[in-house]
Amino acid sequence: DVLNDPEAPTVGPDDADVTIVAFLDYNCPFCKQSAPHLKELMETDPKVRVIFKDWPILTEASVYGAQIALAAKYQGAYTTAHDALMAIPGTRITKEEMLEAIRASGIDMTKLQSALDENGQAISDLIRRNLAQADALGLTGTPVYLIGPYLANGALDIAAFRETVAQARAE
Prior knowledge:
The chain is an alpha+beta fold and 171 residues long. It is 53% helix and 14% strand. A five-stranded mixed beta sheet has the order 1-3-2-4-5. The chain is globular, with a radius of gyration of 15 Å. The two termini are 22 Å apart.
């Protein structure tokens, strides 16, 4: 289920030789620290596929961030929303700050609201599935990266991502 949820935002080819599942929260400082490194890996390694699991466990605003990022998926803008939310400095980011970051990213706000209105239940269901999957895996905090057969907790830099991907490829 973790690897095959058709509603989960995914970046990279279906025939990738390594899949990374990223459990993240938009209020997590370690997620934010890793975000540019994961983005660099996605941009430089064409055989990596990333499945994003919005896992809002830190604040109520985290849930809102996950909802608007997932709503942006309906206009093909999940990664734009994800990048905008991860780029907000600090922790305890408010709903208003998240919404402003999305607005500043150029995402169509009318389409975003329509997606929230029309797909709110599907978005909530996906978040619940992500939470259940994290619980079933025994995960305790963000970020968590499942990289091939490996589980990595905490902030990773580009070298750590590349090393773990290389180990997964060697398996």
